[in-house]
Amino acid sequence: MTNEPVAELHPDYSSAGATATPWAEVVAVLERAEVFWLSTVRPDGRPHVTPLPAVWLDGALHFSTGLEEQKGRNLTRNPNCALTTGNNAYGHGLDVVVEGPAVRVAEHPTLERLAELWMAKIGWPYDAVEGGFRHRPEGPAPETSGVPGAVVPVFAVRPTKVLAFGRGEGFSQTRFRP
What we know:
Layout: E1 6-9, H1 23-32, E2 35-41, E3 47-53, E4 55-57, E5 60-64, H2 70-77, E6 80-85, E7 93-104, H3 108-122, E8 126-129, E9 132-135, E10 151-152, E11 154-157, E12 161-167, E13 172-177
């Protein structure tokens, strides 16, 4: 979402007197979170959920995965997915769900910015190359194909819908649409 979306509080799933979560709070969660849960759909309709690092940049969540991995195969067939982050405490926090299609990132300047963000955020050294990222030798062993020098595709999910679930003194469910 490049323009700030309008927040819509869902009163049926919110405490009395709750207010919609401000978009700035949602963006702060997306920028701070290191781990997201990616949900994709297998060819037979079963869900596939896996944790992975992602970064928020220019109104989209970005992540990388090998095309031979289950999530990569699922996205090749059906790009629609959801990324979820937050915390596991019941009485406080803000959980965020981002829905939208995953699209390959090909622009080298964007890949370079993303590689810098991955390094700053989680210490994972990537080089931006044509087609995605390449693991640097000094970094952790790649979990992808294991082929040295393999290119790992990078995907962007520009939200079609964002949900924010606030917990604390009261509970709130806020929907954001572009």
